Amino acid sequence: MLGLMQDRPLMISSLIEYAAAFHPDAEVVSRLPEGHIRRSNWREVNERSKQVANALAELGIEEGDRVATLAWNSDRHLALYFGVSGSGAVMHTVNPRLFGHQISYIINHAEDRVLFFDITFASLVSQLAPELSTVRTFVAMTDREHMPEVPGVPEDRLLCWDEFIGRQSTHYDWPEFDELSASSLCYTSGTTGNPKGVLYSHRSTMLHTLMAAARDANDVHSGSVILLVVPMFHANAWGTPYTAAMVGAKLVLPGPHLDGESVYELMKTEGVNQSQGVPTVWMMLFAYLDEHPEIDPHELGLRVAGTGGAALPLSMIERFDRDFGADAMQGWGMTETSPLCVIGRLLPKHERLSDAEKAQIKLKQGRGICGVELKIVDDEGNRLPWDGKAFGEVWVRGPWIASGYFKGEGGDKLDAEGFFPTGDVATIDPDGYLQLVDRAKDVIKSGGEWVSSIDLENAAMGHPAVAEAAVIGMPHPKWQERPLLVVVLRNGADATRDELIDHLAGEVAKWWLPDDVLFVDELPHTATGKVSKLQLRERFRDYQLPTVAT
Ligand code: ADP
Predict the structure, then answer these.
(1) Is 362 in the pocket of ligand 1 (CB under 6 A)?
(2) Which of 109, 352, 475, 544 is 20 to 30 Å apart from 179, CA to CA?
(3) Pocket of ligand 1 contains residue 436 by CB under 6 Å
(4) For 466-469, which contacts have Cβ atoms below 8 Å and span 24 or more sequence positions?
(5) Could you say which EC number(s) this protein's record lists (predicted)?
(6) CA–CA separation, 440 and 95 (whole Å)
(7) From ligand 1's centre to the CA of 331, what distance in Å?
């Protein structure tokens, strides 16, 4: 027997309609690529989204057509999120930090018909335009005064956002269609092989949004003032553009200005109480604060510093607590998982623990959220126990987890039970906390045992002189691989190899200690802000550990 409830499709457009109807004046503040700050609100973002939808209709964009963006976080990008998906087209957020040839590959592979771009990317667009075989219209997201020169794009195919969008009607009836229809497309950075497209649907996005906002997940509500540093071109900015609309939160969008000073200023002037970004961004914020000891970050009133994309180091948890009075919290997921799978919140029973004990729990990536099923398996695919000790590859299943890649790239991914392989290796403890040991390809195999690069990096970053650290496995004739620690010191700080090894000796098992420590000015980062182990391994390919007899 079927239930008798209304069969209403889950549509992304319903989020912006809700925000405009019930939180019209809740602010959306953007620092634009042009340099100034623009104050808007959900009512205006809704109007702008409708103008986008009308503009796409004028360009002949039909349901399912892909529309690309090369853009930073701003209210214009937000209007595209709702306008493109809401009209039935597919919002394709392209990561501008990828190499030029990867960007043109992605845009051609997605067969994007329109490309919206921030003026920061004018020369990139100019350079790539001749290779973009499917893009018919280019829209520079700015006003007439700031219109860039874009040689390579014929004048009749280059439009100015303010003129083109501005002259459209703000009236538009959002269409209703199958909730399983594609809503947005995001390519993974593809450390190996070509980037692969993850194609989200209205239904997957709506279910992810409902769950991500929950108290035990990101805890987003109408009192939230969220600084969204995670880029809107990366896994839908962790879904926060949708969650913020769903609850009418104030949204603060930093544009391209991600340096410590700009981020701090924005937090202060806008009264930010939650922030979301990868750890690298918070490291830049810390470096700025190191140079300005007169600033007391307590003045911000920041409650939660949300991180993801890479492990949250203990030193960061401690610093947010001590200097900001804020709770650092991590989530784990990936582009293929929308991205939220687990989140590092404490349980009520942990409240009585000391700060140090709580921090140890926050070091774990977190507990699964309802809707995501998790399993860890051994090499033969057998499920491993949740005892906090056994580790294996993590597989996930749920309505916002990818079933495969766009156009079938990469082949069938799911196992017989319908789980998706994440390529991450983890333990899960009896309370359900998942703790990442490593990415399968980064784990260091020493004498038949595994050394977790994440744990070692974490311990190294606990040394006061260390700003950033990365550990890679180097070939070793006896042990197969041994860890090499590569360190960036804080500005003005000093530490020797032996001091760092001594520090680690108090934190990790003896056989985990790196065979050597190298100091560098900077670590290479991927397009999504993680340390690029691939490039690091490449850079030290010819380096020989001192423990290797010559
Ligand atoms: P990329 O294109 O850089 O792979 P993703 O966002 O899809 O971008 O990356 C997902 C990966 O990032 C995960 O598979 C995991 O290895 C890593 N990751 C995500 N969150 C965390 C976290 N909290 N701690 C450690 N690693 C994380």
Answers:
(1) no
(2) 109
(3) yes
(4) 466/315, 466/490, 466/493, 466/495, 466/500, 467/283, 467/286, 467/287, 467/491, 467/493, 468/280, 468/283, 468/523, 468/531
(5) 6.2.1.3
(6) 24
(7) 10
Q: Which of 93, 188, 335, 526 is catalytic?
A: 188
Probe target for ligand 1 pocket from 457, 530, 532, 533, with the most ligand atoms within 8 Å of CB: 530
Work out the average pLDDT over 510-515.
94
| Predicted confidence (pLDDT) per residue in 327-362, tens digit | 999 999 999 999 999 999 999 999 999 999 999 999
422 carries an active-site annotation: no
422 Cβ inside 6 Å of ligand 1: yes
Q: Is 336 known to be catalytic?
A: yes
Q: How far apart are CA 52 and CA 164, in angstroms?
A: 9
- Nearest residue (by CA) to ligand 1, atom 10, is 334
CA distance readout (Å), 445 to 186, 317, 365, 433, 472: 33, 29, 22, 24, 10
Q: What residue ranges do the domains of the chain occupy?
A: 13-257, 444-539
With H, G, I as helix, E, B as strand and everything else as coil, classify residue 301.
coil
pLDDT of residue 319: 96
Question: Which of 14-18, 380-384, 482-486, 505-509 shows the lowest per-residue confidence on average (mean pLDDT)?
Answer: 505-509
* Token pair listed for 225: 């003032």
Domains 13-257 and 444-539 share a fold: no
362 catalytic? Reply is: no
Closest residue CA from atom 12 of ligand 1: 309
The model scores a pTM over 0.90: yes
What topology is assigned to 13-257 in CATH?
A: Rossmann fold (3.40.50)
Residue with tokens 């914020």: 285
Our answer to whether residue 445 is catalytic in this structure is: yes
Local confidence band at 192 (pLDDT 50, 70, 90 cut-offs): low
Rounded to the nearest angstrom, the distance between the alpha carbon of 389 and the centre of ligand 1 is: 21
Q: How far apart are CA 392 and CA 379, in angstroms?
A: 8
The residue from 336, 457, 468, 481 that is catalytic is: 336
Q: What CATH superfamily is the domain 444-539? A: ANL, C-terminal domain (3.30.300.30)
Average pLDDT, the chain: 96
